[in-house]
Amino acid sequence: MIGTMTTPPERTERPEGDLVRGLGAGSALAVVVGAVIGSGVFLVAADIRASVSSSLWGLVVWVAAGLLSLIGGLTFAELGGRFPGTGGQYVYLREAFGPRIAFLFGWTLFLVIQAGSIAAVAAAFAGVLGDLVPLSAAGRILVASSVIGASTGVHLLGVRRGGLVLDILSALKVVALVGLGVAGLVLSGRSIGDLSVAPMPDAAPFGVALIAAFWAYDGWNNVGYLAGEVQNPRRIVPLAMVGGIAIVGALYVLTNLAIHLTLPPDELARSVHPAIDAATRLVGSGGGTAIALCILLSTVGCTHGLVMAGARVPYAMARDGVVPAMLARLTPHTRAPSVALVVQMAWSIVLVVSGTYDQLFTYVIAAAFVFYGLCAVAVIVLRRRAPGEERVFSVPLYPWVPLAYATFCAAFVINACREKPLASLAGLGIVASGLPAYAWLTRRRQLP
Q1: Nearest residue to 212 via CA among 150, 274, 154, 162
Q2: pTM for this predicted structure
Q3: Residue 126 in contact with residue 144, Cβ under 8 Å?
Q4: What tens digit of pLDDT does each residue of 351-373 get?
Q5: Which ranges of 218-325 does DSSP label H, i.e. alpha helix?
Q6: Which candidate, 38, 395, 9, places its Cα nearest to that of 215?
Q7: Which CATH architecture has domain 20-445?
Q8: Residue ranges per structural domain of the chain
Q9: b/e sequence 169-195, b meaning 16+ C-beta within 10 Å
Q10: Euclidean distance between CA atoms 116 and 215, whole angstroms
Q11: 169, 147 contact by CB (below 8 A)
Q12: How does pLDDT run across 86-125, given as a tens digit for each residue?
């Protein structure tokens, strides 16, 4: 195992209300795989290839994004082992920097990051389904909204049932990706040496390609939101973060290698659905249809994982008293955070209907990496604050790994502000809109 895993003395955990610790190690891993693997790996290969002008460099982008995500996962793993309560990143930021910064994260996550991701993935499901059967624009909105509603309904039945469905969906999508990858390696008749090579791309287009890859990798931190419902979270949450990223990275590289081996560069550059076109070339129209069905399965599973995890952040905020207490309400029999789930569902559907989810997510991508970077800094702050505290998981090569991730996040934000200044400023405005909300709450509830 990467990093250091120990078993600290027993100590009292922060109470988690009446949540049920119904997720074992396999389900925690399924949360990472399920929330990460959506439609991105099937759809963005052409965009990445266009940015770097080489199949080989396209694969390098996927490897680089995976390694950087793994560095982030190692950093978050230490925080996940230290704070195993519901809320994940919100809790990490609260403990390191206080309630105001944590509130701004939770505010942005609820308004755009999580709800926007849920809306975007559900809309991707409707888009692919619309390519298989005729669907009007209104029909696609109805389908996307129904996917969100159905997933929310399953999670209202309780964390065990919701986790079981996610286990099944995650396992099926892993099988589908392995199948596509193996088919490409065996049936394409080409090898890695046949991939097109070009001079190393400039930093700007490589950074643009990384943005597309990071969108496909995003979501590995979701298991931290559910830590209050994971069995033995101090050990399982760090393992799920790191192990899940490693599994996803291997699947992504395998899948994209198959796509690049199968499709000629000019055909890949024109492809709207690279994975479908690659499968069609390998085994005929039936293969393309099979991959289209796999994309539908994958997007349903991703939506299911995002819905499950996202509702736990407003639940944790409500327990802290920084948002209305009703968001911490649990269903009597299933112990699910029902109000938080329903409110999240309603807002995600509003974003689907409005069609603004892609634009809003583009706005806050820089802000999201600000919060990622702050979590890396939090590892250092918390270690200095309590240097003698025993840790279940210790990030390897401390402090260089968290410093490297914080530096990368800062560079990513600077590049985003330079390349897309208006979008980045709009995103910072969305984050800043949480300040008057927090000020109003502090006056109303006498918060610090």
Answers
A1: 274
A2: 0.88
A3: yes
A4: 999 887 777 777 777 888 899 99
A5: 222-225, 233-262, 265-270, 274-283, 285-310, 312-320
A6: 38
A7: Up-down Bundle (1.20)
A8: 20-445
A9: bbeebbebbebbbebbbebbeeeeeeb
A10: 12
A11: no
A12: 999 999 999 999 999 999 999 999 998 899 889 988 998 9
